[in-house]
Amino acid sequence: MTDRNDELFDRAREVIPGGVNSPVRAYGSVGGTPRFLASARGATVTDAAGREFVDLVASWGPALLGHAHPEIVEVVQAAAARGLSFGAPTGAEVELASLIAERVAVGDAKPIEKVRLVSTGTEATMTAIRLARGVTGRDLLIKFAGHYHGHSDGLLAAAGSGVATLALPGSAGVPAPIAAQTLVLPYNDLDAVREAFALHGDRIAAVIVEAAAANMGVVAPLPGYNAALADIAHDNGALLIIDEVLTGFRVHPAGYWGLQAEAGEAFTPDLFTFGKVVGGGMPLAALGGRADVMDALAPLGPVYQAGTLSGNPLSVAAGIATLRLATPEVYARVDAAAAVVADALSSALTAEGVVHAVPRAGSLFGVAFLPDAPHDYATALTQDAWRYPPFFHAMLDAGVSLPPSVYEAWFLTAAHDEAALDRIVSALPAAARAAASA
Ligand code: PMP
């Protein structure tokens, strides 16, 4: 039976490559017609055919407080009435930059002195890398297999997210000399990092790492790993860039760095990147870190970066409102909701005898069809990924919208109330049966 989603998908494919403006939206690995969404509120999304789903995508992370939170919508409307874009600095940008710097603090540790606002996570990581190269005068970059840092040229080698979902080695269109500037190492393997520095130490500008990997499924760093990366980089005159685009302000008021610092694992990254939650659902991202590094950016320093829509007033208003509303109680609610769903997911799969793990990093979790949570990309890729499409579609049929790839995290929000959680929990047994018989 075709419905409005099918009609839209047919038309979309005539005018938009693959019918989507970002690849994983295409249901490429799960099959079927993507839901074309018409609206979203709280924990639910409504598709073009008028069907409502409890949502576990949360716009891929930003909707920490739930969709269309009334106070955020109100400040965005008020900002729109004052002007959509100025191309000049605003007081609100100063407020948001200060909020970001103030929040990323635990005890005496306050690693962010200066912040620059950009529009996407891709821009934030791209700029952080240029900055690291500019201040060190070195070219090479270390990234980890399965980590996704956006789609700039040098970061697509062995990347997670859609690159993993589509089983691509990287991307066409990246010149070999540019790809050669990125050293891709296995995640959670400090010996590999020490070896790379032993071989190329004086040419490595930076190590970039997701604070906790969540684009190859969820793969948390082993205890001490992030702190050791900071030590190794600093011992060799390189910078550590912690990519918190996905984890920042989502797993803890001070991001995954804050979660680790609070647990006694303190370390000092030179640069942080943020996106998603920091813009509350509007296009906004940021990089921040040590003043002496950040001040190498133009107009003070020689590293160029710019943006017509950087610090857009609507996005900044949404970001400020989101950070102000994201109180410790919000994180406690999201943590509790995540625990309910993660436990129910595991119980349902266990009841059907499906080999699985539910890897977690703070409130982020996902499913991996493996006996144990994977610790790196090579292991994540060995799972029975073919069990996910029938599982996904059984959940969708029951009115629960999951990320359309096994290599993505599930996102809870503070708007997932008991009714929303009940709908998810009661949908899981049938989905587990579908996964078992796949
Ligand atoms: N870094 C990480 C860790 C991400 O998860 C993402 C997006 N999923 C990005 C960078 C890129 O952000 P954007 O899609 O806003 O360009």
From TrEMBL:
Q: Does the keyword Plastid apply?
A: no
Organism equals Microbacterium hatanonis
Q: Cite the record's note on assembly.
A: Homodimer.
GO MF, one term, reads: transaminase activity
Known cofactor(s):
pyridoxal 5'-phosphate
Among the Pfam families in the record, one is: Aminotran_3
- Tell me yes or no: is Cytoplasm among this UniProt entry's keywords: yes
Alphabetical GO biological process terms: protoporphyrinogen IX biosynthetic process
Family the entry assigns: Belongs to the class-III pyridoxal-phosphate-dependent aminotransferase family. HemL subfamily.
Instruction: Identify the GO cellular component terms for this protein.
Output: cytoplasm
Q: Per its record, how is this protein called by name?
A: Glutamate-1-semialdehyde 2,1-aminomutase
Query: What's the EC number here?
Result: 5.4.3.8
Which UniProt keywords are given for this protein, alphabetically ordered?
Cytoplasm, Isomerase, Porphyrin biosynthesis, Pyridoxal phosphate
Q: Which residues carry this modification: N6-(pyridoxal phosphate)lysine?
A: K276
The root-end lineage is: Bacteria, Bacillati, Actinomycetota, Actinomycetes, Micrococcales
The pathway where this protein functions is: Porphyrin-containing compound metabolism; protoporphyrin-IX biosynthesis; 5-aminolevulinate from L-glutamyl-tRNA(Glu): step 2/2
Localization in the cell: Cytoplasm
